[in-house]
Amino acid sequence: MFRPHAFSHLPQLCASALLVVLATSSAGAEVPAEADKAMQREANFKAGFVNGCMKSRDRRGVDERYTRAFCVCAMLQFRAAMSEAEFQQILDRLSNSAQPAYELPQFGRGVFAGLECENLGSYDAASPDHAEMELRPRRRFDEFSIRLPRGFVSAPHSDGPGRTQNFFRLHADLESASALSFGVAPAAIFPGSQHIADAPDWYLSVMLEPLKRRWQKSNWAHRRIPDRAIGSLTFKVAEWTASDAGAEHIGLLYVTVIRDQLIIITMRDVKPHAVATLPLMESSVKTLIFHGADHDGADSRDSRME
């Protein structure tokens, strides 16, 4: 389900969850009896993928901490490289078929996608002066296509009344990360949102509240900055800063409304990395093409939502 406050916890998703939540599972981990069978199959696959990857790399004498981060990253990239139907086809073959799953084209595509993780933690020298060179070829997702910065990988997304898609890139410390997130939700999901004369500004204020609560004990501050245009859409934007456990965080929040849908984009990082990575993420965001008329053209600037 789409939850506005989820964006305020993206750092934990990007770093702590990457290194802990999935990788600490074991192949024999118990799954609650009430869990849906499909969810159990997916959880077993992810745990098995990570454990198998770690055992393989452990034999090469690679540092365990880096190995854990790499293997979870590779698993996330594998999953993001295919549709839900393609992923379920792999699970079906692993569970019930005599035909090897690795013969499926999406399996090879998923393994290839994981190669992006080989350079995990090595992008801290990226320069904002060469942002275009830092962007990868266009990738398509459910709601949009985009040219992501090098090294950015997909994190688990959520569905429901709204959808979120998260991306991150770990720094060399393997604890902090650059984070980029997109959310699309029915505009009416927020009580009192009907009949708002200046809807984008109102929604921007609403979306700042969970961030403020999240960082209220961390010298939170924010300011409005000039609007940003992405194709035919105009986003209201706020910049925010906060301090936590000795780290200084900087983030950007983009909000707009198109027809009956609310579109939210968030970016954040820690100093000193944010000086380079926030402009880089903004350059990436400028390449967004939301699926609508003309969305099949890679150079299209049409940003209408269907």
List keywords for this structure.
306 residues, alpha+beta, Protein Transport Mog1p, Chain A, 2 domains, seven-stranded antiparallel sheet, three-stranded antiparallel sheet, 10 strands, 33% helix, globular, disordered N terminus
Q: What's the pLDDT, averaged over the residues?
A: 77
Strand fraction? 15-25%
> How far apart lie the N and C ends?
20 Å
What's the helical proportion of residues?
25-40%
* Uncertain parts: 1-31, 293-306
Q: Count of helices?
A: 7
Determine the oligomeric state from the structure: single chain
Do you know the CATH architecture of the largest domain?
3-Layer(aba) Sandwich
Classification by helices and strands: alpha+beta
Largest sheet: 7 strands, antiparallel
Instruction: Indicate the overall shape.
Output: globular
CATH superfamily of the largest domain: Mog1/PsbP, alpha/beta/alpha sandwich
Helix and strand sequence: HHHHHEEEEEHEEEEHE
Can you list the strand order of the major beta sheet?
Answer: 3-4-5-9-8-7-6
Number of domains: 2
